[in-house]
Amino acid sequence: MQLNNSSARPLLDPGVPKCCAPWCAPCWTLIFGNERETKPAPLRPCSSFNSKQRTMASAQSLTQCFAVKRYRFSGGFLGKSCSRVCNVIYKEKNPSFVVAKSGKVRDFRLFKSVQLDQYVTSDDEDEMGESFFEAIEELERMRREPSDVLEEMNDRLSARELQLVLVYFSQEGRDSWCALEVFEWLRRENRVDKETMELMVSIMCGWLKRLIEEGNDVADVIDLLVDVDCVGLKPSFSMMEKVISLYWEMGEKENAVLFVKEVLKRGIVYSEEDDRDGHKGGPTGYLAWKMTADGNYRDSVKFVIQLRESGLKPEVYSYLIAMTAVVKELNELGKALRKLKAFTRAGLVAEFDSEDVGLIEKYQSDLLADGVQLSNWVIQEGSSTLCGVVHERLLAMYIFSGRGLEAERQLWEMKLVGKEPDGDLYDIVLAICASRKETSAIARLLTRTEVSSSLSKKKSLSWLLRGYIKGGHFTDAAETVIKMLDLGLFPDYLDRAAVLHGLRKRIQHSGTVDTYLKLCKRLSDANLIESCLLYLYIKKHKLWILRTV
Questions:
Q1: Are 25 and 87 in contact (CB under 8 A)?
Q2: What is the reported pLDDT for 182?
Q3: What are the respective helix, strand and coil percentages of the chain, to the nearest 5?
Q4: Among 203, 159, 212, residue whose Cα is nearest residue 180
Q5: Taking a C-beta distance cutoff of 8 angstroms, is the pair 125, 105 a contact?
Q6: What is the DSSP string of 408-434?
């Protein structure tokens, strides 16, 4: 591009060595009024950088926590970290990029990347005095440190004008690094109130969103978090949450996982926020929760375990989220098995062979092993207040996997740590133990019914009865019905019918009728069934035996 007009001749920033002319910078920018033109140029090493300028170009400038502040770049946080790229900005001698106050306000209110309508209103036009525009022009020139400019104009700038300076430099196409330097000065001068902090967080979230939507590397997002931490704006959990959500909603789940790994690897400290249960949230737990909410239970568990086993240290809360995912996966497995059994009874699918049963049991055992490992990490790294929650999760795992003895143990563990289980949980575990005929566990669990009300006692014995029915233990089920009748409790009709049906089927195979006759008589005495005619046909002798009950 030929420049013959002297008024349009680019002015080299006095803070940049002369050898860093357009041939040394990745791009060079010309500003004509409100017009800006950018032309790429090859990047070449500069031999006459002084020590300060070499520090600016160093990749360690950010990790040294803002040791060099004047390293700035134009165009906002667009994925090129200030510690990687050295942009040389050219300006006019007479910086007339703002031609009039009214035009300036209109230009100021054009937002492309940061949605800040709640902060910039029509009333702000009246608050933009000449000092505000003078500060903007001085900061745009980059001839002095922003802190020096602001210190000089401190008495002439209102708190609202300083906030608008932040908004101005946060816009796309402006020097976003200057916004960070302004915020650092405000923090150092103790002029960051709640509204200013909310404003800066909103700006920060806008930058993060733009980086992600424009497809920048995850490393650039991490660098931005480091940058703002260096100027005193500690990344919050809500920022981490926003980044993960953006990646997830865009279908870039691998980048979400990579982001969490980088946060843990670099040890980025963020302000934690309590959830409703008082547990500390973090990026690992939030991403695991996103996976769980989408139904990817197994992926959620593997994600947390792999992070922990790779030497990283996820927050304790993530282990609890992964344990919840184990519970949900076991529940889904149980549902799928029940459907398959129904299809088998209907003759739609073949019955499970020994290999199928072995694979199912192995998958279930692996899930339980993962859950136990996660529970151990919570107990090792978490506080004692989480023990009740851990045993509660383990209880749910064993219930869904049908492990009665292990589930009973978790009930007593919960009582020992001061978390009283709900009465329904005792009844559910009682039914599981009954289905497997765990006699000792049944006896222990029934002790609580001795001091319970009649209603609670009936409920517990009904669960016991249904457990026996599910396990096919109809003799024990008949004894339970008789025990309930002795206590003056009447079993539900469906439960009575299921027991009688099961005993009748057993008579056809074994020929034993004593238990069936005894139960029918007790039910008849309690007026729960009518008198019935019992018959038995002995095929060998072609003999019918009839009896009225």
A1: yes
A2: 85
A3: 60, 5, 35
A4: 203
A5: yes
A6: HHHHHHHHHTT-PPPHHHHHHHHHHHH
Q: For 36-68, how does the pLDDT look when each residue is reduced to its tens digit (9 = 90+)? A: 333 333 333 333 333 333 333 333 333 333 333
**Cβ within 8 Å of residue 222, ≥6 positions away:** 259, 262, 263, 266, 268
Q: Give strand pairing partners of 274.
A: 280
The predicted model gives 399-404 an average pLDDT of 95
Check: CB of residue 291 under 8 Å from CB of residue 303: yes
Residue-wise pLDDT tens digits, 118-139: 455 555 555 667 778 888 888 8
- Sequence-ordered list of residues with C-beta below 8 angstroms from that of 74, at least 6 positions apart, any chain: 29, 87, 89, 173, 174, 175
Q: For residue 46, give every residue at least 6 positions away whose Cβ sits within 8 Å of its Cβ, in sequence order, or none.
A: 17, 19, 20, 24, 53
Dihedral-angle region of residue 65 (phi above 0 means left; psi in -120 to 50 means alpha; beta otherwise): left
* Neighbouring C-alpha atoms within 13 Å toward the C-beta of 94: 6
Q: Shortest CA distance to 57 belongs to which of 44, 41, 75, 42?
A: 44
How wide is the angle at C-alpha 441 spanned by C-alphas 387 and 467, nearest 5°?
105
191-213 pLDDT tens trace: 888 888 888 888 888 888 888 99
Residue appearing with tokens 């074994």:
510
User: Would you tell me how many other CB atoms lie within 10 Å of the CB of residue 240?
Assistant: 23
The phi and psi torsions of 18 (rounded to 5 degrees) equal -60, -30
Can you read off the two tokens belonging to residue 210?
Answer: 């733009």
Cβ proximity of 229 and 98 under 8 Å: no
Give which of 320, 246, 322, 318 is closest to 282, Cα–Cα. Answer: 318
Distance separating alpha carbons of residues 75 and 479, to the nearest angstrom: 82
Angle between helices 218-230 and 194-213 (to 10 degrees): 160
pTM for this model (two decimals): 0.72
Nearest-angstrom CA–CA distance, 165 and 157: 10
CA distances in angstroms from 234 to 69, 71, 287, 414, listed in the order given = 18, 21, 20, 38
Beta bridge partners of 36: 31
DSSP state of 348: S
Per-chain mean pLDDT for the chain? 76
How far apart (Å, rounded) are the C-alpha atoms in residues 301 and 313? 15
Nearest-angstrom CA–CA distance, 262 and 315: 14
